UniProtKB/TrEMBL annotation:
Segments forming domain HTH cro/C1-type: 17-49
Pfam families: DUF5753, HTH_31
Family matches, as CDD domains: HTH_XRE (cd00093)
Lineage of source species: Bacteria, Bacillati, Actinomycetota, Actinomycetes, Pseudonocardiales
UniProt-recorded Gene Ontology molecular function terms: DNA binding
Database matches in InterPro entries: Cro/C1-type_HTH, DUF5753, Lambda_DNA-bd_dom_sf
Name of the protein described by the UniProt record: Helix-turn-helix transcriptional regulator
């Protein structure tokens, strides 16, 4: 039977199929007619909500959409491994495409970062410093910044609740020059005024707990809950029920340990003032 739960590979396959279709100038109803399926069937596949019962059907879809041999091989591989609930994704661009798909249908997102500002809350100057210091080739930086900026706009202009807990280290010792840090912290205070966004600070004084060790995003929609964990050159997307449950519990503990939203914004503003004075 086709999958009714969007796994990371199914989501990436959907992204790939949509990109190929749009390049060919085809609409979803046109592809549906060409492969003798309903419009809703094609739409659900491009969202990663529906798998392929037979490889031949995927091959027909790729053929009518004009997929290259490389794209066909990639699609078949994603289809074959599509039911795996967890996935280590190499490469930031592919990672961001998959995460964006999950975020596009999310009702609420919980983001925890102990030492950096969460991606959707970063100003471009802060993100650029991260990319340069991370040895990203200069030729790739501008395009990556555009992707990050688009993601940021979707979060700020959207309706999904975005709840962020940031470690005090990221605020008090930002990984960027002081002038950029001040602008970033002021921006956080402004963003926190949006009704669907909450920013909380996790103080140093709490000490160590495994739940607070590494950053993660918890993305919830009507149909699924997904955990996204970003590493140095790759990321992991988890949909396995037991794994997700562990992160849900970690998020609950982190919320309890964090300062309240109002107190957090006041603390961030105070640290910004201190940085501005000392330079």
């Amino acid at each position: 039977m086709p999958s009714t739960r969007a796994t990371p590979r199914q989501v990436e396959l959907g992204v790939l199929l949509r990109r190929i279709r749009k390049r060919a100038g085809l609409t979803q109803p046109q592809v549906a007619e060409l492969v003798s399926r309903s419009h809703s069937h094609i739409s659900r596949r491009e969202r990663g909500e529906l798998g392929f019962e037979e490889q031949a059907e995927l091959e027909r879809t790729l053929t009518v959409s004009g997929a290259t041999s490389e794209e066909t091989s990639q699609a078949l591989r994603l289809c074959r491994d599509g039911t795996d609930p967890n996935w280590l994704i190499p490469g930031i661009a592919r990672d961001l495409a998959v995460v964006t798909e999950y975020e596009s249908v999310a009702n609420d997102i919980f983001a925890y970062q102990p030492s950096l500002i969460p991606g959707p809350l970063q100003i471009p100057e802060y993100t650029r410093v991260m990319m340069v210091d991370g040895d990203m080739p200069e030729a790739e930086i501008d395009s990556k910044l555009e992707l990050r900026a688009a993601r940021r706009r979707r979060h700020l202009d959207g309706t999904a609740r975005y709840e962020s807990v940031i470690g005090e280290q990221a605020i008090r010792y930002p990984a960027c020059p002081p002038d950029i840090a001040v602008r970033q912290l002021r921006d956080l205070c402004e963003i926190a005024e949006l009704s669907h966004i909450s920013i909380q600070l996790l103080p140093f004084r709490l000490g160590y707990h495994p739940a607070r060790e590494g950053g993660f995003d918890l993305i919830r929609s009507d149909s699924t809950t997904v955990v996204h964990v970003e590493q140095y050159r790759s990321s992991t997307t988890l949909t396995n029920t037991r794994d997700v449950k562990d992160y849900v519990e970690a998020a609950e503990r982190i919320r309890r340990d964090a300062m309240g939203a109002v107190a957090s914004v006041r603390a961030i503003a105070k640290i910004a003032d201190e940085l501005e004075r000392t330079g």
